[in-house]
Amino acid sequence: MRWTTVLCMLAAAPVASQTFVPPEGCTGTLTVQQKQCLVTHVWTCEADPAGMQWVALLGENGPIQVKQVDAEFQWLTTYYFAPPRSRVMQTPAPDPESLTELFASSYDTYDFTVVPQEGEVPRRYVGFDRLTGETVIDGEPLGTTAFGFTVYDPEGEVIDGLEGRQYVSERHRLFLLGESWPPGKPEEATDASPVEFVYPGEEGFLALEPRYGCDVVMSSLEALR
């Protein structure tokens, strides 16, 4: 019920000068304005298990995806808006993504499969995250990471992949977009790094309108994590 409510609210809301209101029983916790004309909103809900969060990514034309993640940043459910479709993670995974492992050892591997709606093949993600350092953006302490993953179809054929550098927040237990590119092609990198962190009570919190890089023509956002 809440999942459907969130999708309808985001899809129906005009972007310019509007604010997203989380569903009843849910509380917004963070807004991140990013490069590439993107904005991310994070919220939690009282009825959900501890550590579960909802993460919405929006562009200048409206919502792009909503992701439900747990405390280890496993992609439990993802809904894409253009075109509308969803993917659900098979659990337990052979090698689940683990922020706990990443923060403890600076390296984490993962191997999991997401099952799309009818008409698409399951997608198996095999990859890694590696902590490379620390930085501060808009007063927010973040870890810097390198990552890479390969996507396989059920027959083991490679159908996609991505490499790059991104950010991770130990405080919020979230990954945040950074630079990404097709495997072996860093010259094709796009940069969606965070620029501004906005908290409840601050101007721009849960604003639907992105602020940075909106004069740049964007390529497809399908591969963004």
What does this entry look like structurally?
Helices cover 8% and strands 49% of the residues. With 225 residues, the chain is mainly beta. It has one domain (2-198). The chain has a 13-stranded antiparallel beta sheet. The radius of gyration is 17 Å and the shape is globular. The model is unreliable at 217-223 (pLDDT under 50). Keywords: Signal.
Broad shape = globular
Give the count of structural domains.
Answer: 1
* Total E-strand runs: 13
The largest pleated sheet is described as: 13 strands, antiparallel
Percentage of residues in DSSP E strands: over 45%
Instruction: Please provide the ordered H/E string of secondary-structure elements.
Output: HEEEEEEHEEEEEEE
Tell me the Rg in angstroms.
17 Å
Mean pLDDT: 90
Structural class based on helices, strands and sheet pairing: mainly beta
Q: What is the strand arrangement across the widest sheet?
A: 12-11-10-9-8-7-6-5-4-3-2-1-13
List segments where confidence is low: pLDDT < 50 over at least 5 consecutive residues.
217-223
Distance between the termini: 25 Å
